[in-house]
Amino acid sequence: MRKIECIIKPFKLDDVKGVLTDLGIAGMTVSEVRGFGRQKGHTELYRGAEYQIDFIPKVKIELIVPAEQTGEIVAAIQKEACTGRIGDGKIFVTPVEQSVRIRTGESGPDSL
Q: Is 6 exposed, middle or buried (0-12, 13-18, 19+ CB in 10 A)?
């Protein structure tokens, strides 16, 4: 099993969720997060005053998937989340040693 974490632009969430649903992903966790990468924030003008926004609003999606589906899922997320502009986000993949469904006690891939 693998954990896929992706940080994307908020307006791309529905597109990414749709493609994940089409791939048979049954569940995911979505969080609103803020941060910055290479773009280092930006400057905005409000009531005539300029101020720096250091942390850009993003959405973080976390899902646990069977190892053999990882490549297909990562490729689909990358395709749907890409705008071609700076700040499109990142995808991280890490191994998962164990998973347990609390209600039934099922473990491993059966718990997904």
A: buried
Greater confidence (42 vs 82) lies with 82
Q: What are phi and psi of 79, to 5 degrees?
A: -65, -45
- Residue whose entry in the numeric block shows the structure tokens 């969720």: 17
Burial bucket for residue 45 (CB in 10 Å: 0-12, 13-18, 19+): exposed
- Indicate whether this model's pTM tops 0.90: no
Helix axes 70-81, 13-22, angle to 10 degrees: 150
Range list of β-strands (E), 2-107: 2-8, 29-35, 42-46, 49-53, 56-65, 89-95
Contacts of 101 by beta carbon, 8 Å cutoff, 6+ apart: 107, 110, 111
Each residue's pLDDT tens digit, 57-69: 899 999 999 999 9
Q: How confident is the model at residue 109 (pLDDT cuts 50, 70, 90)?
A: confident
Using CA atoms, how far apart are residues 22 and 94, in angstroms rounded to an integer?
Answer: 23
